[in-house]
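Possible regression after last week's pipeline update?

I re-ran a chain I had predicted before the update to compare outputs. Posting the input and the new output here so someone can diff against the archived version. Not blocking, just want to make sure nothing changed silently.
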Amino acid sequence: MSLTLSAAGAYSVDLELVSPRMTTNANGAVRYVIGFRFTRLPGAAESMLQKLITKIEAKRRSMSA
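New output (post-update):
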């Protein structure tokens, strides 16, 4: 699989499906959630991915405050 991280470029990665699950929202709608684990991730991609996740989480926290 290819993972593209904006200006950082594209990286070839391997993923493993680790947590498929189904949930039901308060309104009764079914929602499927899946979790993956990177099994092969180049160091540069890992660093860039960590920075991106930190930025997204900071933005999410500021919007919910």
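Follow-up from reviewer: compared with the archived run. The first helix runs from residue 43 to 64. Marking as no regression found.
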